[in-house]
Structures are given as C-alpha cells and as structure tokens.
Write a structure and sequence with these properties.
Aspartate Aminotransferase, domain 2; Aspartate Aminotransferase, domain 1; 3-stranded antiparallel sheet; 12 helices; globular
C-alpha cells in the first residue's frame, strides 16, 4: 500500500501526460515555454483572481511575495508554529522576524482570537497556513489585518482546490502561494509553485523577481533570484488539470469513508461549516500515537506525522526566544497527529485494511 499513489495517477492519465512532455521536448522551449503562461491563465481563472505567476516551488512563491512587499530586517510577520518549516524559513531568510501565534484546537489553523495580542508597530504581514487542505478563517483574519493596516498572505501550499465560504483557496487574501510538489493535491513531476493576487503591480514585481530582478535582458532593477517554473512541469500540470475536480470529489469520498468507520473512536479532521477541504492529508489525533503508528507499520500500512515538533521548538529558531511550553495547542497536536494514506485512487478495500488495523490497536 502506498501513502500517496502517484503511480496510479500517472497510469490513469499517462497518454495525456506523455504527450504533453513530448511536446515540450520536441519544442526545446524548456524555459518560459508557452505552457507556463497557459497554466498561469488557467489557474488564475480556476482560483478566481486576476494574476497567477509560476515559480520553481511553493517556498520560492512565498519568499518572492514577501520580497515584492519589501519585507526586510526589523519587520515582523505573524504566522503559525504548526506548519512545515518553509512558512517561517522565508521570513527569516529576508531578515524579518517570525512571530508565532497558537492554533485553533479544532482545525489546527491559525487562531484569529490570538492575533491582536501578537501585533506590534513592526508587524507587516499575517501569514496563515491552510493546513492539511483546509482553509484558515480568512474572514476573521482579513478583518484584523485590514483594521491594523497589515497585508495578508495565504500559505496555500497544502490547500489548492479547497473552498472557503464559496471562494477558492489562494483567492482569499492580498496574495497567496501554493506548491505543486508531487504529493500535493495538484502535483507536478518535481518542484513547482505559483503565486496568486488581484494586485497587478505585485504580479509584475513577482515576474521580475523570478528572473533575477531583470526588467529587460541584462537590466536588473531589483534583487531577485532564479525562480522560474519549468515548462515541462507546467505541461504536466496542464495534463492533470482537467481531472482535478474529479480528484477533489474522490478525496471527499475517501474522507467520508474514513469518517464512517472511525467516528467516535479517534479524533477526526475538523472541516468548518461552508468549507471544502482537499485533504492534502487525512490526519487523525490520538494520545496513543506511538503504539498506533508502530502497529500500522508492522502490518505494512504507511503513515506520517505532520508535524512532530512545532517551529518554535526547532533549533534553527531557538534565537527567537520562545519557551518550549509556548503555544500549548500546537505542542499538544504535535504529540497526537497521525496522517493516514490519502489519495484519490485509494480503494475501499485498502481503506478497510487501514481501518481494521487502526481499530484493532486503538484504546
């Protein structure tokens, strides 16, 4: 059994994917080929924003947005400690300070009720993460950001395709970034990412930043980096995109079947009213995680822990000065979360194997 079955997905769309790759190879337009612009247009339309700018990864997309906004040493960016390191990494790489706020005990997304206390005169940006494919509470977060004159950047690297009160993830704030890492809900065959915004000036700055700050050949107006999305990756995504809505629906069926058998036996993912999660992970919580994971591994069922330690407890962020006991909700979640196999091609028989084993070992 595979935790995420990328092979099954490839075989399902093999002809379209192979043809798309072959077209790029024969054209030899490996950098900034037409498929990149086509993907940007189609994904901007999908999300419901005016501009999408392709990048070499979700991490580069986040960093480029912060660079375009001029985030620099002395600035503070408020975010969650319960996320992959890239969220806070890009803040620190620009010399700014990540300021952590604890997460909601149900969704494990940034808790809006704790935001006000974290805002200082140095605050510039709030960066919520739409964790596990479920959007943060953007109405509440945007209201606080607007009240304090702050920018809001959605880290949507796990949530592309999700919905929040009728709107798509990556179209819920001043700007957003997503990832096309192969294991993501919409993944390519390597690294890839995209930034989204309705701000035309920001979009133009992003296009310059991803080309080493170049506004014309060998004319560099600002510092940038090599952040382009490869044409082959764009072609792969274009081949997968027509199937994406069906895959989102399949993810709902997989999640619903997990819920039907596990309800009342383990803490299940919470999906807020009027939200649609894309279940980048199906993450349960149990105080007996070590025993559960050990048993599942012994019977050949893959699992993962997203994430075993909040960012304030990572050695690289020790200089921020947070005590280990800070952010108790994130700390508790890190001791309990366990992600089960989740992908659109997961069969009910495979799920039964997972759940039989899980129910056998649960207290």
């Amino acid at each position: 059994m595979r935790f995420i079955d990328l092979q099954a997905q490839y075989h399902a769309y093999r002809n379209a994917i192979d043809s798309a790759i072959q077209t790029v190879v024969e054209s030899a337009l490996f950098i900034n080929g037409p498929q990149v612009a086509q993907l940007e247009t189609e994904l901007a339309r999908f999300v419901g924003v005016q501009h999408a700018v392709g990048f070499s990864s979700g991490t580069d997309s986040l960093q480029a947005i912060l660079m375009a906004w001029g985030i620099a040493p002395g600035d503070e960016v408020i975010t969650t400690p319960f996320t992959f390191i890239a969220t806070a990494e890009v803040i620190s790489l620009l010399g700014a300070r990540p300021v952590f706020v604890d997460v909601d005990p149900h969704t494990l997304n940034l808790d809006p009720t704790q935001l006000e206390a974290a805002i200082t005169p140095r605050s510039r940006v709030i960066m919520p993460v739409s964790l596990y494919g479920h959007c943060a509470d953007f109405d509440a977060i945007n209201a606080i950001a607007d009240h304090h004159g702050l920018l809001c950047l959605e880290d949507g690297c796990q949530s592309f395709g999700a919905r929040y009160r009728g709107r798509r993830s990556c179209g819920l704030s001043h700007a957003a970034a997503t990832s096309f890492f192969p294991a993501k809900p919409l993944g390519c065959f390597g690294d890839g990412g995209m930034a989204f915004t309705n701000d035309g000036t920001l979009a133009e700055r992003l296009r310059v930043i991803r080309e080493h700050g170049q506004i014309a050949r060998y004319q560099h107006a600002m510092l940038g980096f090599n952040g382009r999305l490869d044409t082959i990756q764009a072609a792969v995504l274009l081949a997968k995109l027509p199937h994406f809505e069906a895959e989102i629906a399949a993810r709902q069926r997989v999640a619903d079947y997990y819920r039907s058998r596990l309800a009342g036996r383990v803490q299940l993912p919470v999906v807020s009213p009027d939200n649609l999660s894309v279940y980048a992970q199906f993450t349960i919580r149990t105080p007996a995680r070590e025993a559960v994971q050990h048993h599942l591994t012994a019977v050949g069922i893959p699992t993962a822990i997203h994430y075993p330690a909040p960012l304030h407890r990572q050695p690289v962020f020790a200089a921020l000065g947070y005590p280990e006991t800070a952010f108790p909700v994130a700390n508790q979640a890190a001791q309990e979360v366990l992600s089960l196999p989740m992908h659109p091609f997961l069969s009910t028989d495979e799920q039964d194997q997972v759940m039989d084993a899980l129910l056998h070992v649960l207290p």
